[in-house]
Amino acid sequence: MKLTTPALLDRDLSILSFNARVLSLAQREDYPLLERLRFLCIVSNNLDEFFEVRMPLQMEAYQQGVTSGPVTATTFERVAEMAQALVAQQYQLFNDALMPALAKERVHLVSGNVRTAEQTTWVANYFKREVLPFLMPVSLDPSHPFPQVANKSLNFIVRIAVGGEEKIAIVRAPRVVPRLVQLPPSISKGEQCFVSLTSVIRANLEVLFQGATILHFSQFRVTRNSDLEVDEDDVINLRTALREELAHRQYGEAVRLEVTQECDDRLAEFLLKQFNLPPLALYRVNGPVNLGRLIQLPDMAKGDHLKFVPFQPHWPQHIKRNTALLAQMREKDLLIHQPYESFEVVIQLLEEAVKDEQVLAIRMTIYRTGADPRMLRLLQEAVRRGKEVLVVVELKARFDEEANINWAEALESVGAQVVYGVVGLKTHAKMLLIMRREGKVIHRYGHLSTGNYNPKTTRLYTDWSMLTADAHLTREMETVFRHLTSELPIPALKHLLVAPFTLQHSMIKQLEKAQRLAKQGKPARVIAKMNALTDVPLVTALMKAASAGVEIDLIVRGACILPVDLPALKGRIRVRSIVGRLLEHSRVFYFELDGQVSMWLSSADWMSRNMMRRVELAWPIKQPAMQSRIYQESLQLYLQDNTDAWQLAENGQYVPVAQQVSDAAPVACQSLLLQQYHSM
């Protein structure tokens, strides 16, 4: 099969397709109402990031009239068209399904035209007391130019008449005021009533513009390019340079303008001109600008039947709770399947290492940590107890830069050694290494994970963690840490696969081996689970293997550029996406070649950035019992799913598997695992 220039699927359209699958969760009538609203809001937040990160390149191609290459003026038009359709679907679902259904459950987002007299009075008083002091309208004229508008901030544009003269004014909504407020029970008639800040301001604009006539107004919101650009070769201190650059992120090039559906054309055109945007970048919405802000509502509203039954991650059955973890790790490797099993094991491991007088050193990578301070405090305590603490903090973790800078400064303040990884690469590998003196020997204990050291997301994301005292793995982990601090070349490793050095090459070699065996008529099977598949060399290797007879199943949550419609593939590559209550995040690579099984867990997706521009790890799972467990829980069950699964069709669209097997007994992998672990 000749695959020199395969017609790959468009990455950005595939990302939007994933968000359409997430939006489908908001349509599922078997999901609780507030959870459906939550998924609707998640899509809004996902789209924000899409526009901040992916759309700038598309916009540049459109404005420059680019006609060739993977990103052109035409691809911008296609992406914009799909994004517009997705946003329209969001608001239709919000207005026609979710809000009416919540109203039947006595949960209301009360707009001005349906408030009672008492509610109107309360909102007016709230406005004067809590909002008005922070509002400073700017009437545009030569001495009051169009103000700087921060990324994703909420604003109003108002056309007013003063003494027969028309003017345009801009009002910034204050960020210090809550975006959602619950009305007191005394004026809610036994119901749960909420008002948005947008609605509060809109209902009281006359108070703000006393002496003027309001002719027209609209909310508006601009989304900007949020990629940080720091030339690491030209800076002395990356942390200082990034902190300075963060201040400019709020005012990057505009890529999207959102206004209300009723916004008149004159005001919309005026705003497009101010932000140097084409008409295709204008999004008119039938409801609140920025549905993402309503993600607070599911947490604020009460009603157990409106939310998922809470799930409490369990302490793993195979790990003894009252026995030292280091001692258990000496006996065997320990595997944790999050969030079904608790991440608290990892926190306890770190706490145990901090308190153990024989532990001499702790090494750790930090990519995303969240707001939970426990791990930071434990590392600080380790320094105070005289241990050598090295932390590799990835300062360029997108949208977590400021949090990670704060971590770095807090650790340095107590004397920890903090480095920022390798110049030009992001450190995305997740590993913790503990060095302990036992007699005359230094023993190493390690933790490797497909997910972040973030206690919050470990309750929402599916990931695998492994605790190990395997001398081969832990010595190689030490080698990787040394590379991160010194930037010296990594010597050939026998067990760990490390990007950008050996991971991509090793996966391609495995696929080439499968291809050779298939050509010889020997059985060859590949199953790979990941978040995204966009690396062209790996996609090409997959297609070549399938064309030779290798059976390949890919479980790809998000973007996938691999087409399944090529005749030479003969249906041997099957791509599915699992989208459910939990966010799929684990990466599992499984090869069954002529009866021999090899399996890796990894921090890396099969994307070019992971393979070539990040420090990533994949580690082998060699124990048959562990292989069997991972295979059953992350691969086999996922391939059987006919409830949360979507299949990539030959036309490049995703089709719910449930539509194809309507008469089959339902199989929902996440629900089954939640039930399985809950019953333990």
TrEMBL record:
Question: In terms of domain of life, where is this protein from?
Answer: Bacteria
Q: What is its EC number?
A: 2.7.4.1
Q: Name one GO biological process term.
A: polyphosphate biosynthetic process
Kindly list the positions annotated as binding Mg(2+): 368, 398
What residues does ATP bind to?
46, 461, 557, 585
Write down the required cofactor(s). Answer: Mg(2+)
Q: What class of enzyme is it?
A: transferase
Return the Pfam families for the record.
PP_kinase, PP_kinase_C, PP_kinase_C_1, PP_kinase_N
Q: Which residues form the Polyphosphate kinase middle domain?
A: 118-297
Q: Which GO terms describe its molecular function?
A: ATP binding; metal ion binding; polyphosphate kinase activity
GO CC, sorted alphabetically, is: polyphosphate kinase complex
Give every Polyphosphate kinase N-terminal domain span: 9-110
- Which key words are in the record? ATP-binding, Kinase, Magnesium, Metal-binding, Nucleotide-binding, Phosphoprotein, Transferase
**What is the catalytic activity of this protein?**
[phosphate](n) + ATP = [phosphate](n+1) + ADP
Q: Which Gene3D superfamilies match?
A: Endonuclease Chain A, Polyphosphate kinase middle domain, Polyphosphate kinase N-terminal domain
Function text: Catalyzes the reversible transfer of the terminal phosphate of ATP to form a long-chain polyphosphate (polyP).
Family as reported in the entry's similarity comment = Belongs to the polyphosphate kinase 1 (PPK1) family.
For this protein, the record's HAMAP family field holds: Polyphosphate_kinase
Which protein is depicted?
A: Polyphosphate kinase
Gene name per UniProt: ppk1
